[in-house]
Amino acid sequence: MEPHPYGLLSLAPPVIAIVLAILTRRLVTSMLIGIFVGALLTQSGNPIWALSDFWEVHLWKPLVDPTRLRMFSFTLLMGALIGVISRSGGMRGLIDIVTPWARSRRSGQLLVWLMGMVIFFDDYANCLLLGNTMRPITDKLKISREKLAYIVDSTSAPVAGLAIVSTWVAVEIEYIRSGLLNINGQFDAQAVNLFIQTIPYRFYMWAALLLVPLIAILGRDFGSMLVAERERWSSDQVNSRHPAVNSLDSIAKSSAWYNAVLPIVITVLLVVYFIYHTGRSGAGPNASINEILSHAQSSVALQYGAFGGLMLAILLARTQKLLSHDEVLGAAAAGARLVAPAILILWCAASMSLMTGNKSIDGKSSQSFEFQNHRLYTGDYLKSVLVAPVAVGQADSESNSSAPDTNSQGSSQSGVATGQLQARFPLQLLPTIVFLVSCVVAFATGTSWGTMGILMPIVIPMTYALVATATSDQILQHPILLGTVGSVLAGAIFGDHCSPISDTTVLSSQSSACDHIAHVKTQMPYSLSLAAINILLGTLPLGLGVSLWLLLVLQMIAIVLMLLLLGRPVESN
Fold this sequence. Notes:
It is a single chain. The termini are far apart. It is built from 26 helices and four strands. Helix content is 69%, strand content 2%. By secondary structure, it is mainly alpha-helical.
């Protein structure tokens, strides 16, 4: 086997990016520095050549990739759509319809949760719209600002991260695609299929969404949240230290509910139609659903779906004279600005993933480390550290002596390398290890997107090599692979959910007019409890072969028991 050209140094760019992001809280700058360090490595330390490669190879080429440009376009179009339906008052009109349902603390909390589920298409819009519009209702019902901020935060990133149509879906699919591109073979077309298959494996997200209504129904809280709720229940005055913010200016105007619902519905329908149409065209008339999803051009579907929704939102606003021409442009620009920073993060993360990968945009690799003048092969190095080759005779003996199942640790690989590989640690622990790493990185950096961008391109090819079986289809449906990819996404949401420097955490506290540190302090016990359930009744038993659906049921039971044992009613002392 040819020695790795960079060895341990291949880890330098992502490690430097993570460390600098933790120290400086500036993710984009940190990732750019990491990319430049990688360029120095591939150019033998020559700063002039490194600077040229930094822009021409590592930044420019990922930027002009057609698929990635469509993903950027979709994100901006969704931001513009959010801006128009918010400024035209459609979202406020929808909320005005349901507010009479809130007659008690229980129904008030459930209403906020339900509206958070409705605003599934963007976490920023969820935070800004939900906190500002529901705050008068929760204040009237004596629900603490801390509880409101918690519900807003729990129905922002978790909902957007799971939704099939949202500003997140393009990012998640793109990161999965980047990881698949780091596997030898043409697997990038499987990104949408893999994304959908991992949805039930994202245990933390489902638990976060389930905990909120259970708290409301059972009427129990624990930890710092119980203290905050009891203080609010016993007081007639709201303890608020921060003024509310409303960047989308949606509160001052209210219009018909369908001005918000129809554009979102059209967006969803168009995305589904174009996914089916492009997938059917590529897979053939008799293709199965999985084959259609595998051949679908998701970037095209997302782009035109968001464009159609935006056009309908503009048409509704203009024909009803809700907004002038200039106001429409201003609202669309304001919404696009909300997601513009995410575009920059996505660009840098894509550049980092390509640099640490083993693929060249210009062609396919025909020999080992062929593109080492601009690629670091980080995933290949990690695989060499974490896995060891197994002698053919030994592998055959092991395979003959064990019954075939989907959880076998060593098997022949298709498209990764010749021979067989075996993990240097129990493979059953991989989903748990990846979840913990993703949690730490996301919490420390405050960004789930950056965490996905750093980890996904490395985790997918490494896991693929460890669980490789006879055919690629079997590999991409392997429970440990699906669980590990889901762990990256779930761990990223955990960090984004409770990190004090996370944008959604900050927006949740601001829009709810809640003290930011109080929000972090009251939310943390819930987040940590769910993370523990995620591991004990999720990733660990999943690695041991326990049924996914059984684990989801057990997690639900565990959350209920946790509230019954640890929680106390707010109204009693």
